[in-house]
Amino acid sequence: MNQPLSYGRRMTLEKILIINDDIEDILAIQSRLPKNIEITTASQWQAGLLRDISKYDLVIIDNDANNLKKSKGKEILQKIRSNNSSVPVLYTSFQPGWVDGSVFQTRNVEVVRTDQVIDRIGNRFGLELKNSIDISNPEPELNLILTYNPVKGYNPGIFSDGKLLVVSYDRHSQIRAREVLAEQIRQIYTSFEWKSDRDLVRNIFVYDGINGRELPGHIAQSLGHDVRMCVNLMACKCDWDRKQRLSNSSYVNLYPVECGGSETLGAVADVILGIKRPEIDYNRLVISPEKILEKGERFNLR
After folding, report:
1. pLDDT tens digit sequence for 207-253
2. pLDDT digit string (tens) for 96-127?
3. Of 34, 139, 227, 268, which sits with the fewest C-beta atoms within 10 Å of its C-beta?
4. Contact residues for 115 (Cβ-Cβ < 8 A; gap 6+)
5. If you write DSSP's letter for every residue of 200-231 in order, what string do you get?
6. Quick check: pTM over 0.90?
7. Number of alpha helices (DSSP H) and beta strands (DSSP E) in the chain
C-alpha cells in the first residue's frame, strides 16, 4: 500500500537528488522548481556509485522501465536503503501500477505518477512553482491498433497509411496468441525511437482476450509508459475481473468488446480513416467516433 512520506524534521527543502535516465524528465522537473533549491542529478548507473546521500532532503527516483526492460529504479532504491534508511524518497513512474510491490513496502517511500511529482513537492513544502511550459508539438496523427486476431475489413499483418498502423494476425493465431503478441511488440519497438517519436502518436488501441492472458495488459502498460499516454484496452468479457484489476491499477481506458475484437477494431480503423461501411452502425460502438478521433490523454511534466 502506498504511504505518504515522513520528512522528519525537514521543514524546508534545500537539496534534492534526482535519479533518472531520461534527461528530458530531469530538465522538466528543474524548470519548475525555485532556483534557490540545489538540485543534483544522476543516472541510474551513477546513483549506484553514491555512498552518502544523507545531505539530501529528498530523493526522486524514476522507475526507468523503458523499452520493455526491467526496472532500474528498484535496484537503486534497494542500494540507497541499505546505506541510508531514513531519507524520504519519491518514486516516480508514468504507470504506478507497474511498479514492483517491494517498492511500495519499502520504508519512507511514496510512489507518485511522474507528471504529478512536481505538484506533490510544491504542496508539501509550500513552494511557489514556476508555470508549466506550453510546448507546441506537431499535431499527432499516428493511431496504433494492436491485436493477435484479424481486424475486420483489413488484411492480416501490417497495414499502414501514415495515419493508421494496424498490426494484426490471421484467425489461426489464437493457439499461439502470446507468441504472436511478443513478436509484434518486438517489431514495433524496433521501428520506433520512443523519445523522439512519441509525440507522433495520437492514440493506441490494444485488444485483450483470454488467449493472450496477461501479455496484452502488460503491452498496454508498456506502450502507455513509453509513449506517455493513456492506452485504450479493448477487452472481451472473458476473465473480466483480471482486466478490471489492471484498469484500476494502471492508466488505461478499458472498453468491453466482443470476443476476438475483430468487428470493433475494424470499425475503429474505419472511423480513423474516414471510411463508412453500410453494414456497420458506428454510433453504437462501445467507444464513440468522437472519442476514437480524440487525441489520447497525455502525461506531461512541463
Report:
1. 998 877 878 788 888 888 888 888 899 999 998 999 998 888 788 89
2. 887 888 999 898 899 999 889 999 999 888 88
3. 139
4. 94, 228, 299, 300, 301
5. GEEEEEEEE-GGGTTHHHHHHHHHHHHHTB-E
6. no
7. 11, 11
Q: Please enumerate in sequence order all residues whose Cβ is within 8 A of that of 88, keeping only pairs 6 or more positions apart, or say none.
A: 5, 6, 7, 8, 10, 57, 58, 59, 108, 110
Percent of the chain having pLDDT more than 70? 83
CATH topology identical between 15-125 and 142-293: yes
**How many C-beta atoms lie closer than 10 Å to residue 246's C-beta?**
21
Distance set, CA 81 to CA 14, 46, 62 (Å): 21, 16, 15
Q: So where are the chain's domains? A: 15-125, 142-293
15-125 maps to CATH 1.10.730.10? no
d(CA 41, CA 220): 30
SS3 category, 286: coil
